[in-house]
Amino acid sequence: MPGILSRRLLLAAAPSLALASVARAQSWPNGSIRLVVPFAPGGSTDIAARFLADGLSQRLGVTVVVENRAGAGATTGSQVVADAAPDGQTLVMSNIASHAISPTLYGNRVRYNPVSSFSHIAMVITNPSVWVVNKDSGINSLADLVRMAKGKQGGLDMASSGAGSSNHLLIVRFCQQNNIDFTHVPFRGAGPAMQAVIAGQVPMMSDSLPSAAAHIRQGSVRAIAMSSAERHPSFPEVPTFREAGFDLVSTSWFALSGPAGMPAAIVQRLNRETRDFVSTPAAQARFAELGGTAGDMTPEEFTAFVAAEVERWAPVVRASGATVN
Amino acid sequence: MRLNTKNLISGGIFILVAVIGLWLNTDHTLGSARRMGPGYMPMLSFGLLGVLGAIVFLGGLFNGPDPLARWTRLEVMAVPLGIVAFFAGYFIADATGLFTGWYPLGWGAFAGCLALSVAPGWRPIGLVHAGLAVFGLMLEQFGLIASITTMCIVAAFADPTHRVKGVIGMIIFLCVLCWLVFIYELDIRVPVWPVFLTQ
Amino acid sequence: MELLIQNLAHGFSVALSVENVLFAFIGCVIGTAIGVLPGIGPVATISLLLPITFGQPATTAIIMLAGIYYGSQYGGSTTAILLNLPGEVSSVVTTLEGYKMARRGRAGAALATAAIGSFFAGTVATIFVAASGPLLTSVALSFGPADYFSLMLLGLIISAVLAQGSVIKAIAMVVLGVSLGLVGTDVQTGQQRFTFGIPELSDGIGFVTIAMGMFGIAEIILNLERPESRNVLSGNVGSLWLTKEEWKRATPSVLRGTALGSVLGILPGGGAALSAFGSYMMERRLSKYKHEFGTGAIEGVAGPESANNAASQTSFIPLLTLGIPSNAVMALMVGALIIQGIQPGPRMVEAQPDLFWGLIASMWVGNLMLLVINLPLIGVWVKLLQVPYKYMYPAILTFCAIGVYSLNNNVFDVYQMLAFGIFGYLCSKLRMEPAPLLIGFVLGPMMEEHLRRAMLLSRGDAMVFLERPISATLLGIGFIALATMLLPGLRSKKDAALQE
């Protein structure tokens, strides 16, 4: 057992030896870097973070250790990083939940400001939402969905991976725009929700593309719309909301941020390494399988992006009726 | 009347929890049977708990006797003393302003458990928990080794047959074992040595 | 049938490659070790080890992770039997009879029963997965929210009915457990309930925190209070192997537990825990030695241990056939597969036959390894009981403290465990059983979720629970179980049986 477990150390040690000269040139990074994931292990944020940690470990020459700090709509872990020293040794896998939705959803329970309490470093991966329906539901398009929802008393049952998730809020926006009634059926995670759709207990679900991709490819559910601006290269047959005549674009994102006040040099270096890493063919291929797109933003662009996201989601969150108080 | 003291007390605990729960639950919207709000299930479960508590309590009036073990005078005194010490420890630690986060709670728990231990009969429960409280207080500042050592010393007083040599040997063994298992193998995120020495 | 044998043969050719056997072995050893350590569970370990698997072939990686999973299920029963520490939900039941057996000097027999029962159940369940996995998936799919709710309600009734002592108090403890499970964020609205503004409570109270406090820490104190009884163990360990009589009693229980566990394991959520509890109840009803239950009946170890191991094998069915994880460990497996570039789902059988059949074959190989690893170790574990208790308890305390801290790297969990230690001690003094509380705590949140979803989908019509045949049947069984226990005539029989 010791021999095997220390393989992990070896894995980390080999590149660090190779890159020792690079690391010595600056005082940062100084020992292993902590990458806080504000969700439980196994989810899409966790997968993205571990993938990034692996790549950054090799590029920076120090171990990037993933630490899961789940809770309170991803705000618990983000708070830890907001409070940490801005020395570049503690980073967070920021995402649409922790930095765009939860600050409004949780209101004054969140002590950090999603923009100013962080040094936003780089976008890692973005992916659209996809709406899937049960095979035998008789729904073939968004127009069918609207027609059916209007015909049904109490509205159509619509499932999502959880209240206050970006997928849920997409349903809220859609139904508001089209003046239709709906019954939101929240689940604990995408897996059980997908099961309910396959079994026909709920006719449709709004899901993130990475978790739905396999089921769409296998034909166990039917995809009727994608929330990206253009058709997704991996799923060219699925129309976008816009094409179907509904003005909705929504992408969820996973990114890298640190505490506010990090030295610009470190931010730049991390930004460069992250962008280099996610643009390698291997990473691109992996992202394509997942249905995601590698991010490519400067720290300034990304900071502006986060600010815009907070603005964009605040009214939707309030309208969704999802509250924590 | 054949009083069943144990059932009377447990029934009382159930009722107390149910009442507190239902009272706290007034903050939550009940919703309707179709669209249950966050308060619906708590209403059902705390309500049921209250009813069951009442049945246990009423039954306890007749289905005894099942008395508690007799307490000595010191043991009776130590319980309120422990509770007072808990709150004193908490508020004093909080008021000094030196401690933030969970430290005041830790000090409270430590003080309460120590105060409870003045009665020899309460030493197992008091000192084992005092050991845990010390562990919580020390871990993040003084590191794993110091915390284990202190916890074991405190907890060792819970068993009067412990001797100094045995305790030292046990602590060394435990420190080595924990370092191997938790630090070397599992690599959990915790300081091993005092933070002020390593930084 | 021929095809099945052909497929299994292919699976074994994959599973028996040197590398795969090696990693299955490593997985089993690590799994057993973390199962024995309180606090550190398979979820934490697998997430820690995930990066190692990036460099391995997918099949090897999954075989190792699977080994960790069922190894930990097995290891958890070791501490449950020896120290009354249930490391996993499914080993809560094992403490009921296993720990009593150990106190009676039959620790060796209890451990051997658990090992052999688990191996047998694992073997049967493996064949079951291979033969009927895809078919059974449709059964699992036909379970709607109303059916789940009724199943869990039945589970809770069972856990109360089979507890020792007063049924009413046991039901009250179940309900208290359900209430404790409500603490945290409400899934449907995201509202915080009963958290007192403490962010650490927003994800609820941890299972391990409660289990360690109410079983582990409280047990230390109770043992310290009665120095005479704890020393009995060091004097008289007894034979390590089962007697002829014990074999005869354990065999039917193993068979029944295996059957029940195999079926319940397919259901997502709580399968292993429910099947262990269900099996315990079944044994208690069917055993000729009812009077020994509560004092260390071997049936109470053999049945549940077989059931939970069978369930942990069959819980792979939804993952392998639908790509749907049935518990947290399976969710991590999905993550591991996705990182490897494999999408778990119905097409895995065709697209990845090596992985699919290799994993199934390796389940059996892994179970064999667990037996080989653990049977010789029984002597070592039992020796552990001969360590004077005054040296044992600081070690248990230390492992609990570090284990609980490492869940979230937060000392608040240590203080929570402290509070549950005091509460657990109080409970045992007042004859309030902690086991029903724990099972209520685990099943409560799921029950609420399914209740609310069922009512949402039925538009508020409670009749849905009686209209669906599965749900109605389950409720009927629950009602009968409750009625027989509360009816005066039968109740006195139970009391007599319990008082021995």
TrEMBL record, chain B:
Keyword Membrane found: yes
Protein's name in the database: Tripartite tricarboxylate transporter TctB family protein
Keywords per UniProt: Membrane, Transmembrane, Transmembrane helix
Residues passing through the membrane, by range: 7-24, 44-62, 74-93, 105-122, 134-158, 164-184
UniProtKB/TrEMBL annotation, chain C:
Keyword list, A-Z: Membrane, Transmembrane, Transmembrane helix
Ranges in coiled-coil conformation: none
Segments passing through the bilayer: 21-40, 46-70, 109-131, 151-183, 204-224, 259-280, 319-343, 355-379, 391-408, 470-490
Entries under InterPro entries matching the protein: DUF112_TM
This protein's record includes keyword Amino-acid biosynthesis: no
Domain DUF112, chain residue ranges per copy: 22-438
Domain of life the protein comes from: Bacteria
Protein name in the entry: DUF112 domain-containing protein
